[in-house]
Amino acid sequence: MSEVEEQEKRPTEESTDDSEEEDSEEEPKLKYERLANGVSEILQKDAASCMTVHDKFLALGTHFGKVFLLDIQGNVTQKFDVSPVKINQISLDESGEHVGICSEDGKVQVFGLYTREGFHETFDCPIKVVALHPQFSKSNNKQFVTGGNKLLLYERNWLNRWKTSVLHEGEGTITNVKWRANLIAWANNVGVKIYDFSTKQRITNVLRDNTSLRPDMYPCSLCWKDNTTLIIGWGNAVKICVVKERDPMEMRDLPSRYVEIVSAFETEFFISGLAPLADQLVTLYYVKENSEQMEEEFRARPRLDIIQPLPESCEEISSDALTVRHYQENECRDYRLEHAEGESLFYIISPKDIVLAKERDQDDHIDWLLDKKKYEEALMAAEISHKNIKRHDVQKIGMSYINHLVEKGDYDTAARKCQKVLGKNMDLWENEVYRFKTIGQLKAISQYLPRGDLRLRPAIYEMILHEFLKTDYEGFATLIREWPGELYNNMTIVQAVDSHLKKDPKNSTLLTILAELYTYDQRYDRALEIYLKLRHKDVYQLIHKHNLFSSIEDKIVLLMDFDTEKAVDMLLDNEDKISTDRVVEELKDRPELLHVYLHKLFKRDHHKGQKYHERQISLYAEYDRPNLLPFLRDSTHCPLEKALEICQQRNFVEETVFLLSRMGNCRQALKMIMEELEDVDKAIEFAKEQDDAELWEDLISYSIDKPPFITGLLNNIGTHVDPIILIHRIKEGMEIPNLRDSLVKILQDYNLQILLREGCKKILVADSLSLLQKMHRTQMRGVRVDEENICESCHTAILPSDTAQQFSVVVFHCRHMFHRECLPSPGTIPGAQFCNICSAKRRGPGSGFPEIKK
After folding, report:
1. How confident is the model at residue 660 (pLDDT cuts 50, 70, 90)?
2. Is 618 helix (H, G, I), strand (E, B) or coil?
3. What gap in Å lies between CA 390 and CA 258, rounded to an integer?
4. SS3 468
5. Does residue 529 lie within any of the structural domains?
6. Is the pLDDT of residue 604 over 60?
C-alpha cells in the first residue's frame, strides 16, 4: 500500500506508519501528491469545505465563505468573497464558463466567469446543494437546481426572468445533487431520487439501507459514471443504478424510463466518496476504529481503494492508506472525492489537505520496478513503451541492469545483456570490455561482441584472443572459427600461436587453428601440410574449396592412407586436374591402393582405364578375388591369354572355366567343372549356357559311370536333351540314387509339356474362331449409299440424278464404291471383281497379277 506523507510529519504520525505496507511487493495502482502552492497558504488560515473539478481549473470553497479558482498545480487565479460562512457546494457547467455557489447562510449565486450575467438570491434556510444544467452556457438551457429543505428548479424565461418550480419537498434536507444530461439525481434523509428533465417526470426512488446512521454525519455520495449510470454510496452500502428505456407496450401511466440496480454490496468501511475508473470504482473510505480507541488523536487514516464491483459483492484491486493532515480530527462528512471527467485524476479533499491521486504511468511502473531491483522487467517495460516514457531512458535502465548483474557476480547474463543494451554504441562497448577485463571476465563477454558491419577496434578482439590463448585453447579455437578474420590482425595471431607451438609442438588444437589461420591468409600449402600431418577431415574440403589439386600431386599416397574412399572419389571426380596416369605413377609402389583406385575407375567407366586392365588382373587376383570374375566378364580389353595364365597359376577354377569358354575351349572348360569342381549342377548350367549338342554328349559320357551325376542329369536335361538317350545308356544293374523320383519328374515334365501344348492349341483355335466370326459379321453388315458418295474411278456421283433410271453399283468391303461399268473386266477368274485402289496398294508397282478379294 502507498502512503502520502506530510513534509513535516509529527511523531504521532510516524508511529502510525504500517511497515508491512511499505514493504509490500504488490505494485500500487495510484500515485499521490499534495496540491500545494496557493492551496497550502489557503488551508493554513482556512479550511476546505467543498471542491469541484473541471478539465481546465479547480474551484475550491472554504469554511470562511470564500471561493478560489485554481489552476491544476494549485495556484490561485481568482478569488470570490461569497459569504462569511461555509460554502456548501460549487457547481460548474461543462464549458467551465459558469459557476453556481451555495452557502450555509442561504446564499445562492450563479454567474458567468467571463460575462456579467448572474443570479443572486438569499434564502431563509441553509442551501446545501446547487447544480447547473450541464449545457448552462447555451441560451435555451439556463436552468439550475438548489436544495435545502426542498429541491427547487430555476428556469430563465424569454423575458429574462427566473421562474421557480418545486421538484421535491417533505423528506428532510437535500444533502447532495448531481445533474448529468437530462437526469437530475438528489439525496435526502429518505433515499435517492432521479428526475427526467426531458419528460418532467420522477422515475425512481432508491431507499437508504442503513437508517441508523445520521445522514448529516454520513452523507450520501453520488456520481454519474455516464449519461445513464448512477453510482450511490451511503454509509457502507454501494449501489450501481442504470437508467433504461421502458418498453412502449408496458408504459400505460408509468414513466418512459425506469431504473435497474445492477450491483449492490456492502463495504468494510464508511464511504466518503466515489468515482468511476473504467469498469472499476475508486472509493474513499472513512475508517472508524473500535470504541476503546476512539480518542481523537488515534482516529484512523482514510483509505482510497480501487474495487471491482460484482452483482452482489466486490473484489478489492488495491488499497492505500492516506496520511492527510489532521486526519485524527476529521469525520466521515469532512472528506470528499472529486474526479476529472475523461482523466484518471482523483482529488481527496479534507479540511486541511487536498491530495491528488493519479493512475500510475509507465514511468512510475518502471520506477517501482527499479526500486524493487526488478531490472529485467523494468528494461522490458521500457523497451515496449519507449515512445511513451518521459523520465527514463532504455539504455540507462539497461546499464543499471548490467551493473546490478556484475555486482551479483552473474557475469554471463551481464555479458548477454550487453548485446541488447549497448547496441551500436561502440564507446560503451569498449568501456564494458575493459571493465570485464579488469574483473577478469573477458571470456564471458567474448561471444557477444559486435562482429557484423559495426565493429570495435582490432586491438579489442586481439586482446581477448590473447587472453584465451593463455588459458583456454579450445575457447581460442571456437573464437577463431566464429569470428570473421577481418576483426583482427591475422599475422599477429599467427605469430602468437607459433610462439605457443614452440613450447608444445604436437598440440593438435593449436596446429588445427594455425592451419585455419593460414587458410584465411591464403597460405594454403602451409595449411594443407598441417591438415595432412594431423590427418584432419577438413583436408578434402580445403582442397576442393581452394582448388589445391596441383599441390597434392605428390601427396596422393598420404591422402589415401588417411581416407582411401574419400581420396579415390576426389581423384576420380577431378580427372581433368589430376590425370589417371599421374595417380597410377604415384601409386605404383602401393599396389593395394592402386587396386582400389583402378577398381573404382573401372566401375565408373569400363573403357577409361583400358590400358591398365592387364595390370588389374594380377591386382584383383592378389587383393580382391571376389571381383576378378565380374571384371573378366565386363572387360573387353583384358588379354585372355594373360588372364588364363594367371588364373591357372593360382588354380582359380571358376575364372579359368570362364576364360576357357570365352576362348572357345568349352569342352576343356566342362572337363574342369566335372573334374575339378565335381559340380554336376554347374556343369549342366554351363551346358545350357553354351547350348551345344557335343557338350551334352561329353557331359553324358562323363557322367554315365557316376550315379550321382546321372541323377542330376535326369532331373535337369528334360527340356534340352531327350531323356531316353540317357536312360538307354545307363548300364543294367547300376544303382542310381533317387531314380524313381527322377523318372517321375521326367514324366511330370513331359505331361506338363503336353498340357501346355494342348492349352496353347485351344487358345489358338478359340482366337481363330472369334476372329472369323467377327470378320463374317463385318462383311455381312450393310453399307449406306447416298448422293454424297462418288465413284472412285470416274469421280462422279455414285447414284444417278434420275432414280427411275436403271443403274448398277459395286461396293467393296473396304467401303470404296464404283459404277459397274467403271470396273475392269474380271480377268482370269470369271465373276471375280476387286477394288482397283486396295488391290494396287497390295500389289505394289510391277505386280502382274492382282490379288482378288472375295
Report:
1. confident
2. helix
3. 47
4. helix
5. yes
6. yes
Nearest to 714 by CA among 736, 743, 747, 685: 743
Main-chain dihedrals φ then ψ at residue 345, nearest 5 degrees: -120, 125
Among residues 441, 465, 480, the one where a domain terminates is: 441
Residue 513: CB partners within 8 Å, gap ≥ 6? 473, 476, 477, 480, 497
SS3 state of residue 847: coil
Report whether 253 contacts 226 (CB < 8 A).
no
pLDDT of 4 over the 60 cut? no
Q: List, for residues 636-656, the tens digit of each pLDDT value.
A: 888 888 888 888 888 887 787
Beta pairing, strands 221-224 & 201-207: unpaired
**420 and 467 together in one domain:** no
| 85's grid cell | 460562512
- The whole-angstrom distance between residue 759's C-alpha and the CA centroid of its chain comes to 69
Answer yes or no: are the C-beta atoms of 517 and 493 closer than 8 Å: yes
Residue 48 included in any domain: no
Q: DSSP label at 674?
A: I
Backbone angles phi, psi at 318, to 5 degrees: -155, 160
Residue 300 or 770, more confident? 770
Q: How many CA atoms lie within 13 A of 423 on its CB side?
A: 9
Give the C-alpha distances (Å, rounded to integers) separating 61 from 177, 317, 348, 431. Answer: 17, 32, 14, 59
Identify whether residues 461 and 425 lie together within a single domain: no
Q: Could you read off the pLDDT of 20-51 as tens digits, one per residue?
A: 344 456 888 888 999 988 899 999 999 999 99
If asked whether residues 435 and 461 sit together in one domain, one would say: no
Closest CA to 384 of 370, 372, 394: 394
Q: How many domains does the chain have?
A: 3
Together in a domain, 402 and 462: no
- Residue 795: which region, alpha, beta or left (left: phi > 0; alpha: psi -120 to 50)? left
Report helix angle 539-546 to 564-573, nearest 10: 10
Q: Domain check: are 486 and 530 in the same one? A: yes
Please calculate the CA angle 370-373-374 and round it to the nearest 5 degrees. Answer: 80
Dihedral sign for Cα atoms in the order 474, 480, 481, 483? positive
For the whole prediction, is pTM greater than 0.90?
Answer: no
Question: Which amino acid, residue 709?
Answer: F
Read off the DSSP letter of residue 302.
P
Report the mean per-residue pLDDT for the chain.
Answer: 81
For the chain, the distance separating the N- and C-terminal CA atoms, rounded to the nearest angstrom, is 121
In 3D, which of 671, 13, 683 has the Cα closest to residue 328?
13
- Whether residue 828 is contained in a domain is answered as no
The three grid cell numbers given for residue 355, joined into one nine-digit string: 491530495
Q: Which domain holds residue 419?
A: 361-441
Please say if the pLDDT value at position 763 is more than 90.
yes
